[in-house]
Amino acid sequence: MIEYRTYTHDDKDAAFWADIGPFATSRDVHKALGGPIFDDARFEWVIAKEEGVVIGWGARVHDAEKKLVTVDWTYVVPEHRRRGIYTGLRERLLSGTNGTTVRGTSKNAIIQRLYEREGFAHTGSSGAWKRYERKGV
Length: 137
What we know:
The protein is α+β, with helices and mostly antiparallel strands. It has a seven-stranded mixed beta sheet with strand order 1-2-3-4-5-7-6, with helices on both faces. The chain has four helices and seven strands, in the order E-H-H-E-E-E-H-E-H-E-E. The chain is 27% helix and 38% strand. The protein has one domain: Gcn5-related N-acetyltransferase (GNAT) (Aminopeptidase, 3-Layer(aba) Sandwich), CATH 3.40.630.30. It is globular, with a radius of gyration of 14 Å.
């Protein structure tokens, strides 16, 4: 069974860092995501685990004042892809965002197609990176 846990700035504990740390330093993950991941007080994270092992995660910044959510660094471990984990992460990352504009950026062609299927508009590009936005999610 897949378990999802959300971490806000106030509850990022040693378990969070133990879970995300090995991926934060992985060159393969950096390559897949287009660069290293980092954290600051604005980020909320969702981590997916199966039998206590991290199999995916994603992060978002929710600016309630601007009614804007930026989704970033959604990643599923390769051997666990095509099992609905990305969808589970996205559902949690987008929860509570009704009436909010959601933005995302990706250089991954699969993720770009998912943005398009989810009704996001392509709003710009920089090399392989494409930006997407959906208003009033």
